[in-house]
């Protein structure tokens, strides 16, 4: 089963100094932090801030290609968590045909923001990420989860939704 999520914000991990995209479900009960690379975070931040660039960036190019081919993005799904790596699928629709495309979550999220399509996370991914947090580095991950759940708008700085 898929849980609809929204991008709550983008922030830096205070421990690793790596960017984190924070997904939160519509009811506000579950969060999912996804660590991403600097360049991927920049692509997401540009769209959150609605910054236009002089030339199309990669995700803008993909959006333009899809629109030019009259292909819609129905949804993106963070579909799996395997060996501490998240996987995603972009679901396209063209002429009534549904096409699934394997993707990194950061690229899927950057595209979802640009095309204003829904973001989902498989329920199993949410459960697995919680159980992973319980098994390894229990204290650190529990503290991080409490910290993430307690964030307010000021904690996100400029990059909040």
From TrEMBL:
It comes from the Bacteria. GO terms for molecular function: nuclease activity. Signal peptide: none annotated. Residues 2-133 form the BFN domain. InterPro entries: BFN_sf, Bi_nuclease_dom. This is Bifunctional nuclease family protein. It comes from Paludibaculum fermentans. The lineage of its organism: Bacteria, Pseudomonadati, Acidobacteriota, Terriglobia, Bryobacterales.
């Amino acid at each position: 089963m898929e849980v609809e999520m929204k991008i709550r914000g983008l922030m830096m991990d205070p421990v690793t100094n790596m960017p984190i995209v924070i997904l939160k479900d519509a009811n506000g009960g579950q969060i999912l932090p996804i660590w991403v690379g600097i360049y991927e975070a920049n692509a997401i931040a540009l769209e959150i801030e609605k910054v236009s660039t002089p030339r199309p960036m990669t995700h803008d190019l993909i959006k333009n290609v899809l629109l030019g081919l009259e292909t819609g993005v129905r949804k993106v799904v963070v579909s799996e968590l395997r060996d501490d790596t998240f996987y995603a699928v972009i679901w396209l629709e063209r002429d009534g045909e549904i096409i699934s495309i394997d993707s990194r979550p950061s690229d899927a999220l950057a595209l979802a923001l640009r095309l204003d399509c829904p973001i989902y996370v498989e329920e199993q991914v949410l459960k697995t990420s919680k159980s992973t947090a319980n098994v390894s580095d229990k204290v650190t991950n529990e503290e991080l989860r409490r910290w993430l759940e307690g964030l307010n708008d000021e904690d996100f700085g400029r990059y909040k939704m």
